[in-house]
Design a protein that fits this description.
The protein has one domain (23-130). The chain is built from one helix and eight strands, in the order αββββββββ. The longest helix is centred in the N-terminal third of the chain and has 15 residues, at 2-16. It is elongated and about 55 Å long. By secondary structure, the protein is mainly β. The protein has one helix at 2-16, and strands spanning 25-30, 32-36, 46-55, 60-70, 73-83, 93-102, 109-117, 123-130.
Length: 133
């Protein structure tokens, strides 16, 4: 009996949800137009990397910075969400973002900044090595 009541409750709740009311969007990585990095890092201190990226039209919005650790390598990209319900204005907007790096390793840092995809669909990266003093 409890299982039947649970099934009825779930059915009633799910029927109340209208999929037309749910937001229609997707996530997308944006290429980094430019990265300004220091010549070197100092171990135990914080430093800043400045990146520039472009929102492709008014439906693109900044979501966050994708920052992945792989040993001494850092993969960096801009993650955006794209509203698929709006009429988009065809205007590009360049934005900047400061990434604070807590220099916690003595090895050189290798940054791979996302630059888009090639004709085979493979990700392209600009690689920058920053030595640690």
């Amino acid at each position: 009996m409890k299982k039947i009541l649970l099934l009825i409750s779930i059915t009633l709740l799910s029927s109340c949800l209208n999929s037309d009311d749910l937001p229609n969007y997707r996530y997308e990585f944006l290429k980094i137009d430019e990265a300004t990095t220091p010549n070197s890092f100092t171990f135990g201190e914080k430093d800043t990397i400045k990146i520039k990226y472009t929102l492709l039209n008014s439906c693109y919005n900044f979501d966050n910075i994708y920052y992945e650790y792989q040993d001494s390598t850092r993969i960096v990209a801009v993650r955006s969400y794209v509203n698929l319900d709006n009429d988009c204005q065809e205007v590009t907007t360049q934005k900047e973002y400061d990434i604070i790096v807590n220099v916690a390793q003595e090895e050189d840092y290798i940054f791979k900044f996302y630059k888009g995809v090639d004709i085979d669909g493979e990700s392209i990266f600009e690689e920058v090595i920053i030595p640690v003093n």
